[in-house]
Amino acid sequence: MGAWGSSLYANDTTSDVRDTYMEFLKDQLSNQEAYDKTVELFGDCIDDPDEAPLFWYALADTQWQVGRLTSDVKDKALEWIEKRGGIELWEESKSGGSGWQKTLDKLQARLETEQRKEKKIPKRIDQNLWNIGDVYAYQFHTDESKKYGAFGKYMILQKIAEDNFSAKGNKIMRVHVYDKLFEEVPMLDEIANIRLLPIDFSTSTRNLYMSIQLRLEKKRDYPVSNLTFIGNTSCPPNKARGRELSSYARWSMIECWSVYFPQWQGVEYETVEEGIFKYTQHE
């Protein structure tokens, strides 16, 4: 299990439990069905004394947030809080786990307050919209793109992978972008030899973000009227991988990508190895 902070969802286990349970609710399952399926998926976690408290903390907090906290889940979470479950992660830290203890204190206080009114859960939105290899032209059309000379021009995106979106097995699309703006929608053969556009800034000395997940939070954010399907083609090996990252962007913010084109105009990056790229800084 990876942890990157002492807040409740700053580790892989709690964030996966929260997301998985919510995905079941978004599939319009009842609270009992969502609970049963989440428990089934995380059976090994529940049997692990190190991860079990994290499971019950996340499930209890998430249920409370949506007005569905059951007495059994609440009791299990409070029992683990009393035993300071999860503190082992921080025993060797300088703080001795003081940050984690504060997180548990806040969680306990929340669970012991009156539960929120049950929230209506919207249906799950499909995050995996295209086929791998699909190429689309996106036309910039807002004032944001005017700042960078992209208004009315076309950016070319290709879906290169399907990443896991939750422990439940839902997928999310990963795309890369070609480093050229077109005045008109191009044909597939017109993009064959164009390099990738880093979704990154050229001042970086590390490996570059060469691809990114695209998340759809609201159906109306998907810009169907500004997308044109060009075709499907395989990804050249040195373009298909990109950097293995959990980075993501939202469809609602795609107009902001116009900033990267002038940023990388005339700026070089090198291929360190297949699919790994780094900014080349010249004296």
Shape, principal axes of CA atoms: elongated
Major sheet: 6 strands, mixed
Domain unit count? 2
In round numbers, the mean pLDDT is 86
Residue share in helix = 25-40%
Spans of 5+ residues with little confidence (pLDDT < 50)? none
Taking the alpha carbons of the first and last residues, their distance comes to 42 Å
CA-based gyration radius: 23 Å
Q: Helix/strand/pairing class, anyone?
A: alpha+beta
User: What's the tally of helices?
Assistant: 9
% residues in beta strands: 15-25%
Q: Total strand count, please?
A: 8
Strand order of the largest sheet: 5-1-2-3-4-6
**Order of helical and strand elements:** HHHHHHEHEEEEHEHEE
Characterise the protein shown here.
With 283 residues, this protein is of the alpha+beta class. The protein folds into two domains: 12-111, no CATH class; 134-279, no CATH class. It is 30% helix and 16% strand. The protein contains nine helices and eight strands. The protein has helices at 12-26, 31-41, 43-47, 52-65, 71-82, 98-111, 143-146, 237-240, 260-264; strands at residues 134-139, 154-164, 171-177, 212-215, 227-232, 248-250, 269-273, 276-279. The strands form two sheets. Strands 5-1-2-3-4-6 form a six-stranded mixed beta sheet, with no helix packed on it. A two-stranded antiparallel ribbon has the order 7-8. A hairpin with a 2-residue loop joins strand 7 and strand 8 (276-279). It is elongated.
What's the layout of helices and strands?
Elements: H1 12-26, H2 31-41, H3 43-47, H4 52-65, H5 71-82, H6 98-111, E1 134-139, H7 143-146, E2 154-164, E3 171-177, E4 212-215, E5 227-232, H8 237-240, E6 248-250, H9 260-264, E7 269-273, E8 276-279
Parallel strand pairs: 4-6
Antiparallel strand pairs: 1-2, 1-5, 2-3, 3-4, 7-8
Helix pairs in contact: 1-2, 1-4, 4-5, 5-6
